[in-house]
Input
Amino acid sequence: MTDRDDTSTTEAERPKPSVRHLAGAGPAAKKVAGARRNPSVVGYEETAPHWLRVVAGWSWRMMVVVAAVALVFWATSRVLLLFIAVFLALVFTAVLRPVVNALARWMPRGLATALSMILSILLVAGLFTYIGFSVAGQWENLGKQFNDGISTLLTLLEDSPLHLTVTNDDVQGWLVSAQEWIAENSSAVASQALASAGSVGQVFTALALATFCTVFFLTRGKEMWLWFLNQLPARMRESWFVGGDVAWYTFSGYTRGTFIVAAADGALAAIILLIVGVPLAAPLAVLVFIGAFIPLIGAPLAMVIAMVVALAAKGVLAAVLVGIGIALIGQFEGHVLTPLVMGRQVSLHPVAVALGVTGGTLVAGILGAVISVPLIAVGWAVFARLRHVDPPTDFTADDDGDPEAETDPPDGPPEEVALT
Output
């Protein structure tokens, strides 16, 4: 009866031996039991050092980020005209929005937008018309003064300790060489002129598209932004809303602040040039105004050009006075005007500005130098607003030389730590 019961038991009803029971049940069982401790078995935990796994993880993540940035740059280069038009539209919107908001209190917003844009176009057209007439009226006199200034400069070089002798015959020889080069490369010059004509057409196209976009940004900008937010998933809307608000606050503050600072620089430069008696004061002042939009390199370049004109027209003393005056304007801008106008809307370290301008110039020339700083400022502002900051740590040592005495966080909630 017992044997019958044993044979009637099915295979599924019999208890299966566990890995623990098989641990000492022969060579095969020992191999199975030791598979979890044998590094040579496939699927075992990686044997690479921890630091190497960390570096590898960061490396492929950085490669993905670099690839994404390169893709953005490539896509932007393919639609560069569109990017410039949208960027100019945002600049125009940032400058004109306070005017439109003020006029919208007494008239419909559409009418306020049209009136503000017409006034701005008339202002720019009048300014350039005045510059054109001033240049045409002083061009003949400036040519004579320029020749006299060149002669004075050659005399100074000859009387200097270097004794650099440059005669009028040398200057005439250089002019003849330049004429011969132009005659030999006339086809290249003509093709370059045609390319410049195409560039001029692209400039007008970008301005027209920027003006068209500015009208809608000023009249329906808020509705367009809310429509975009509603197209996003609900879990992402709050982050995009906060980031977009910070980005526009920073960009508009930078744009309006730069415009006000550049206008002040141009006005002060015009006053200095008029006091010294330098001709073409208005065009040079406009050049200083335009140069202020290019951080670090724009204002010094405009200063050099103004000094050259002053040297050619009035001599060395006038050039020195112009250089000192524009240098004082730069100091007033950096230490008084910029902090007063921009405040804390744009807070970038000078090293970040220098690196951004240099990198933007290497990548996209003058356009990169102009847009690099506002883009960096906007990116940093959004990152600083959305990130979670840990409490700061002071790694300085105490009087006894114990570096850990200052690293212990004080008592209290994290909010108090972050404020100390």
Notes: The radius of gyration is 35 Å. Residues 109-159 form the longest helix (51 residues). Residues 391-420 form one domain. The chain has 14 helices and no strands.
